[in-house]
Amino acid sequence: MEYFKMNNGVEMPMAGIGVFMMSPQEAEDSVASALESGVRMIDTANGYMNESGTGRGIRKSGVAREDIFLVTKLWPTVYEKETAIDETLARLGTDYIDLLFLHQPTDNWREGYKNIEKAYKEGKVKAIGLSNFPEDLLQEAIDTMEIKPQMVQVEAHPYFPQTELKKMLAETGMGLMAWYPLGHGDKTLMAQPVFTELAEKYGKSNAQIILRWHIQSGDVIFPGSKNPAHIRDNFDIFDFKLTDEDMAKIAEVDNGRRYYEASPELIAQYAKMELQPDL
């Protein structure tokens, strides 16, 4: 495993598993399987409504909590709720979160950030992050918040490697967690000749080449899967290294394509979307 050291000195694994779009039972099974396979970083969220299942999966695995890097996110409708973080901890069955994000840049994000800062000071949160935030709001957080953010979570893949954002992050020591790391299942991305060529060269799959590219680009990745074999394959990327020439060839794939755009209308919907019970 390789690790990323955040600007507060906390280290996190550069690869793990995400449980987006999983039911609580699916999250429980996938998390338990991943941990039993050696994965040590888990990414969930209030908004996924499977934190309880994630917590059950952690306990089912038998892996000690201190050996797991647990990531979750607050949803906008609870940013200002004084008990939101304690309720998150209760659902997960833990007394601390390794990395806690604000999930969306709704108008009340500043109040939510102060809520996380308070939990950070109390030791309930080890690191603070911002998910899906545009660069102007990231800069505001860096300039105005007492505790500077340690991590951002955004869409990133070979079609859209977040080159400009990474320049900004490099100045602050912030890291990047990449969602849609394989391009939202886009077969045209996966089938790019460069990935097929490198897969043959290294005896890996096209997906493993892309995930390895992320690691060498400095991205923390958390691809989701319900299939134990796929979980193991997604994690089997630390026994080889792409050359500088390989990385340069992959850079040519960049075409600026994104799969998600957060319109003002969508952000307004997030601000009003109440969470369903997490069973």
TrEMBL record:
UniProt lineage: Bacteria, Bacillati, Bacillota, Clostridia, Peptostreptococcales
Domain of life: Bacteria
Segments traversing the membrane: none
PANTHER family reported for this sequence: 2,5-DIKETO-D-GLUCONIC ACID REDUCTASE, NADP-DEPENDENT OXIDOREDUCTASE DOMAIN-CONTAINING PROTEIN
Name of the molecule in the record: Aldo/keto reductase
Keywords: NADP, Oxidoreductase
Site for Lowers pKa of active site Tyr, residues: K73
Entry's family note: Belongs to the aldo/keto reductase family.
InterPro entries in the cross-refs: AKR (IPR020471), Aldo/ket_reductase_CS (IPR018170), NAD(P)_OxRdtase_dom_sf (IPR036812), NADP_OxRdtase_dom (IPR023210)
Entry keyword Electron transport: no
One MF term in the entry's GO annotations: oxidoreductase activity, acting on the CH-OH group of donors, NAD or NADP as acceptor
Span of domain NADP-dependent oxidoreductase: 22-254
Binding, substrate: H103
Stored Pfam families: Aldo_ket_red
Record-annotated active site: Y48 (proton donor)
